[in-house]
Amino acid sequence: MVKKVYIIGLGLIGGSIALSIKQKDPSIHILGFDINEDQANLAKRIGAIDEIATKLFPDLSSVDMIFLSTPVQQTTQIIEQLKSEQLKKDVIVTDVGSTKVKIVECANQHLNGKIKFIGGHPMAGSHKSGILAAKPHLFENAFYILTPSQYVTQNDVDLLKSVLEGTKANFIEMTPNEHDEVTGVISHFPHIVAASLVYQAKNHEEQFPLVKRLAAGGFRDITRIASSSPSMWRDILLHNKEPLLHLFDEWISEMERVKAFVANEEADNLFSYFQYAKNYRDGLPEKQKGAIPSFYDLFVDVPDYPGVISEITGYLAKEKISLTNIRIIETREEIYGVLRLSFQTERDRELAIDCINKYCAYETFIM
Ligand SMILES: NC(=O)C1=CN([C@@H]2O[C@H](COP(=O)(O)OP(=O)(O)OC[C@H]3O[C@@H](n4cnc5c(N)ncnc54)[C@H](O)[C@@H]3O)[C@@H](O)[C@H]2O)C=CC1
Ligand SMILES: O=C(O)C(=O)Cc1ccc(O)cc1
């Protein structure tokens, strides 16, 4: 039975894990450490942890499980230091890093099977960092990848899953190699592309100052992830170099292919290019969170008068329902506009429908 867990790194992910454990089983004592004291103090203040560790390795003899939720470069450094610590027999150590090969190799090399290590990666998150962005339901419906090694048993994996049950994530197991190849394609490389699109816009801004103002719509959506932590992504890219180098090559030849369609005005090929991408994109499962974020959208028919947005958000605030995004859909017909509200969970969307029905008569619909 797990009575005490230690979380190192109390930012977005460490904080969300702590909150989900606390919500499910408040009797588990959570000890937390962050190199940034403000983060640790805030974690304690919001009730994510019970106790602040004043140094990286305090007395850990009664700790049953350790979560490493630091940036990936720090995670390997901490693993190296862990080997000289006095830990409880059978303690399970896990991490949440976005890469797995280097971290698991480091654990195999330094912990050598003497300390049970299970690589982990919750495949959901945000472009925001820090404990104040943490949420107990951040990983709800998301895939949570585990990469258990030959040194751990099914019981160890089950114990970890039971402590993480409050995340409501879907656990899947794979090898570290498979993990890094897949996340390279669906998460790491898209971050590079998002940042490069921002560069492209910025480079054209001098000539066309309107670029910045007009970039507020779809461009903002496609480049949202470019607002993520630069240091975190620097470290992820350095950890996953080989798969990314292949992806660069593939991407460049793909761009050359489309460029030729445009240059030669190959209308049919262009149509097929977009049609194929649309079919694949439309067929992606919707209700799982992951590197393609899925939001729970609710559309509200609202009359076009000043203050209507604050009216609706006021009702939601009254019921403590949090929104992740709000937008007026620009194609208005007649006198009604469509307000699109996005929520992080289906439950929040259901609560929002009840709330809007309670306070006003605007029609709501889900597409
Ligand atoms: N941000 C995201 O959406 C996701 C991030 N991850 C992974 O989770 C890990 C943490 O990321 P976030 O929580 O987003 O970052 P964050 O920046 O919100 O939190 C990281 C925390 O670790 C602390 N820290 C850094 N070095 C430390 C050290 N040596 N000892 C103790 N604390 C230290 C920082 O002060 C910070 O509070 C990273 O490895 C990242 O790859 C995984 C899934 C999603
Ligand atoms: O903000 C987003 O959509 C993300 O892509 C979040 C994210 C960041 C890092 C990961 O390893 C997994 C998910």
UniProtKB/TrEMBL annotation:
Which segments constitute the Prephenate/arogenate dehydrogenase domain? 3-292
**What Enzyme Commission number(s) appear in the record?**
1.3.1.12
Q: Which SUPFAM superfamilies match?
A: 6-phosphogluconate dehydrogenase C-terminal domain-like (SSF48179), ACT-like (SSF55021), NAD(P)-binding Rossmann-fold domains (SSF51735)
Q: Which UniProt keywords apply?
A: Amino-acid biosynthesis, Aromatic amino acid biosynthesis, NAD, Oxidoreductase, Tyrosine biosynthesis
- Leading EC class: oxidoreductase
> What Pfam families has UniProt attached to this entry?
ACT, PDH_C, PDH_N
Which is one GO molecular function term here? prephenate dehydrogenase (NAD+) activity
Boundaries of each ACT domain copy? Answer: 297-367
PROSITE patterns cross-referenced by the UniProt entry? ACT, PDH_ADH
Q: Which CDD domains match?
A: ACT_PDH-BS (cd04909)
What family is this protein classified in? Belongs to the prephenate/arogenate dehydrogenase family.
Check the record and name the PANTHER family matching this protein: PREPHENATE DEHYDROGENASE, PREPHENATE DEHYDROGENASE [NADP(+)]
- The protein, known as: Prephenate dehydrogenase
At the highest ranks, the source species' classification is: Bacteria, Bacillati, Bacillota, Bacilli, Bacillales
